[in-house]
Each structure stands twice: as structure tokens, then as C-alpha cells.
Design a protein that fits this description.
single chain; 218 residues; alpha+beta; 2 domains; four-stranded antiparallel sheet; two-stranded antiparallel ribbon; 15% strand; globular
Length: 218
């Protein structure tokens, strides 16, 4: 087995500094809980059942998400946020360890990289993202106008991803002559109508898209 990829940085999100924080908390808490339970149901076992030490639990509940079109992997340590939520207390900070991305997730020691999610996982991610986007839309339109041709390129890409989530996770352009949108190494146009975004967009991409939206409306 290959060792974990090189550590790059720690990415910290806080309630006071990030306007998408509540959506991020909802997304990560729901996604990590679902993934852990799904693993238990699928394998009929779980490494956390016999674990009593909270320090060990914190290590076990580490969830790596590999970027599909971002050259990074985000490792989410879900224990502290979940422990806070189950104590009926507001989460004020989320922390991710960012590692260099990997090409062969299954060959890396120390955890399963969540890179090919089930349909429900995408619904969780899409719901959080769409909610944040719609909350920001009035500010985007006030700043850049209702005409999307005047929007920055990353906002136009973010809009197309929002539309995809409202059409079953598939690219959807109403106008067959609409201009293509691009972000990172991804480009979508009306020629891609009906194409699932699932292989291209997941946790790492969505977090960075929410950061891009927040940058423009702050």
C-alpha cells in the first residue's frame, strides 16, 4: 500500500468568516453520517463499534474526499463536529487537512477515499450547494445585473452547476446557443445537456465553488 499523499495545509472554516458555513456544516454532517452508516450496512461491521476511547474515535472518523478536477484531497475529521452536534451545541468551526491529490485511491493506506459517491450523497451535496447559491443570488444580481453574460466566469460556472442539481444532477441549458462555461479544467456547453456532473463535481469542488461565490458577494 502507498502511504498517505503529502500534506499541503490545513483549511479552516468558521461561522464568523464564511457565509456558507451553515450549509457546509449541514453537508459534511449529513454526508459523513450517511457514509459511516452505509459502510456499516454494507460490510456488516464497523471499526467504531468496539472503540471506547474518544481520541481513537477522532482518528477513526477521518474521511478523505478526493478531488475530481481539483489537484487536492480534503480529509475531514468528522468526530469533533458530530460530537458537538449530538450535544445540541452549534458548530463554529470545521477543519480539513488538505493533501496532494492521488491517482489511485484504493492503493493508499489509512482510509477509504470517498470519490465515487452514491446518488444520495450527491443529493446531500447538491441540496447544501443549491441552498447557498439561492441565498446569494439576489446579491449576485444586484452586483453584476440579472444578465448572466455580465457575470464573472466562475459565477457563471457556479450557476450551471446549480441548474444541474435542479435537473437530477445533469447539465441543463435552456438556450441551445448559450455560451460555454469553464472552471478549472472543466467546460460545459449546451452540447453537454443531459450529462451527469457526478464524475466531475463532489465535495472538494463544491467547497471551492462556494468559496468562489462568497468571494464575489462579500
Amino acid at each position: 500500500m502507498l502511504p498517505k499523499p503529502p500534506f499541503i495545509r490545513t483549511e479552516t472554516f468558521t461561522r464568523s468568516e464564511h457565509i456558507f458555513f451553515d450549509n457546509l456544516v449541514a453537508m459534511m454532517a449529513s454526508l459523513s453520517s450517511f457514509t459511516l452508516v452505509a459502510q456499516l450496512v454494507k460490510t456488516k461491521s464497523s471499526p467504531i463499534i468496539s472503540v471506547g476511547d474518544e481520541g481513537t474515535l477522532a482518528d477513526v472518523l477521518e474521511m478523505p474526499f478526493r478531488g475530481a478536477h481539483v489537484a487536492e484531497a480534503y480529509v475531514y475529521r468528522s468526530y469533533e463536529p458530530l460530537h458537538t452536534i449530538t450535544s445540541n451545541t452549534a458548530v463554529d468551526e470545521l477543519m480539513f487537512q488538505v493533501h496532494q491529490n492521488i491517482q489511485r485511491p484504493n492503493s493508499v493506506a489509512g482510509g477509504h477515499y470517498v470519490s465515487y459517491p452514491a446518488h444520495l450523497s450527491q443529493l446531500i451535496v447538491g441540496s447544501a450547494y443549491a441552498n447557498f447559491y439561492e441565498n446569494c443570488l439576489p446579491q449576485i444580481q444586484a452586483k453584476f445585473s440579472h444578465t448572466t453574460t455580465n457575470w464573472p466566469s466562475d459565477l457563471n460556472f457556479a450557476r450551471v452547476i446549480r441548474n444541474a442539481y435542479s435537473h437530477g444532477g445533469k447539465i441543463h441549458f435552456d438556450n441551445p446557443n448559450a455560451a460555454a462555461v469553464s472552471w478549472k479544467d472543466l467546460t460545459y456547453s449546451p452540447d453537454n445537456n443531459g450529462q451527469p456532473i457526478h464524475p466531475d463535481i463532489f465535495v472538494v469542488e463544491i467547497i471551492q465553488l462556494m468559496q468562489a461565490i462568497a468571494y464575489h458577494v462579500r
